[in-house]
Amino acid sequence: MTRDPAVAAGAAPPPDDRRARVRGTAYPRYVAGKLGGAAVSLLAVLVTSFFLFRLIPGDPVKFMTGGRQVSAEQLAAYRREFGLDLPLWEQFTDYCGKALTGDLGTSYQFRAPVVDRIGEALPNTLLLTGTSFVLYTVIGVVLGTRAAWRHGGPGDRFHTGLALVLYSIPSFWLGLLLIIVFSVGAGPVPGLFPTGGMESGGEEGFAYVLDVAHHLVLPVVTLVAVEYGQTLLVARSALLDEMGGDYLTTARAKGLRDVLVRRRHAVPNALLPTMTLVFINLGRTVAGVILVETVFSWPGLGGLFYQALSVPDLPLVQGLFFAFAAAVIVMNTLADLLHPLLDPRVGR
Amino acid sequence: MTTKDPDEPAASRPVPAASRPVPAEAGPRALARRRRRASAARFWARYRTHRSGLFGLGALALFALVALTAPLTVGSGVQSVTDAPGRPMESPSAEFPLGTDQFGRSLLGLVVWGARVSLLVGLLAAVLSVAIGTLIGITAGHFRGWFATLMMRITDWFLVMPTLVLAIVLATVLSRSLGTVVLAIGVTTWPTTARLVRAQTLAVEARPYIERARALGGGHWHVMSRHVLPNVMPLVLAQTTLIISSAILAEATLAFLGLGDPTVVSWGGLLQDAREAGAVSAGKWWYLVPPGLAIAVVALAFTLCGRAVESVLNPRLGVAR
Fold first, then answer.
1. What are the backbone angles phi and psi of residue A106, rounded to the nearest 5°?
2. Contact A112/B at CB under 8 A
């Protein structure tokens, strides 16, 4: 999908050994490097989440029981149950060993393995996040590249301004307002959409799909509204960087229409840095997802995180922290692995 | 950093004040002062051409005024739940222009009083974040080798992490106080600053006068504090303005999730109160709109200022974020 500027400018095609090196020895080494880096990052998350939860001032067991009157025997039992009677380094090795076998502990609130709760909520979050991610990336890139192509014009000023305004709006506030206007109904607007949840219950087959889609509208609109601005700004400045390129002058000189110069030559080159930044910014999206799921009572990881925070259910918070961080790291690694296949200049 | 000096005459002249002949009796201090004034005037003249930047500055001045004069206009009694003046959840009226909350407190007073906490926490968290970022950026750029590699690895790791989740976790495990909120936001948002400052440090250290300073016996501390730091300060200023905006949003988020200091009123906390009091399902939009609008306007104002400062300092940047 990338057009090499040199090729577009009509120069001799680059020697084939460049591609050969990417497909031959260099790419596996690149993959190994990236996978190694991801493994180190995951390990760092694991270590951080262990020590983060040992920062709690005072006795973690007292914290878990939430200040209720508990006898000394019960406290000791809790300590044994959560392995808190062991020395710190033993707790740590125990924790790491369990985490590597997929055991993130037992939820204090649900009395169920943390991994099970995460597994139940994960598909719902993927549905919400995936839909929003695709939409806000496409909208951001399309609007951003158009704004950059006519930079300084009224369209550019309007879209950049709107993106900045939406970027400054707290996502949870926008969600609450949308609920008031479109679910509860304000003035002449009747309640068009459900106030929260993922399904009304009772539907099956196609009706169920429609029902879930109906519930999905407002959360997705909220997430897209607060997140597309960043993609727009990134895509806009990436294309502005490409605007001075000689290969664009050449493309115009050979008589290509303006739209084609943008679509076939400029945008593909601007897409690469944009995608890198879109994936780096996924961490921000995770925060948005947590808030939107909380506001719309979406039964996903974010809603679960909020439930865990309000208790606070420390094993569940810890497990979800690991899950969110791991998801972002995995997505970034995937983006890194795809990058040299799209752009032969990377990873050599 | 005093850039608000509109009656500086040298601003629009083609010849900067610094290059005018200096009286022979002027010492180096007077010379430095004169140069600083001239560059501040130049800065302001260019800043003035950004209309959105001026709008942001105006909005900030207004909010700062409201926050600073709050003890005179509404008084700290506005937070008191026990002797609230109105009935619970009153609609906007002449007595309570924005209505009342579930305890009968005036919402206008609460929003005005909440500006103090939201702005203070945002400022402090941004200062902490930028201080950490600058320290790590300068040291990683100055000392090469394994130290820099390690620092940049940590920075990249933080950059990819969902930092708000990290801040939420920190705020959960530590005690509920404003200090915790400042700490949680500050220690999770520094990586972008660190990367920018490191890049600038590398550029500055490649200049010949750094070599001269080293040849004259300047140590690490001297080079970093006297030569590198002044050169990264403009960048740090722009970055601080941008970070304040996200710090205010982060503070509102933490407060909305119930992780703020429960004893003080902030805009995010008001939204949480509104949600818990059932203002959403009852359709009481007038309870929800003002605090959220205040957050959005202040965050936008800081972003606009930061972008204007950024493009004044680096015109090549266009208006990239």
1. -115, 135
2. no
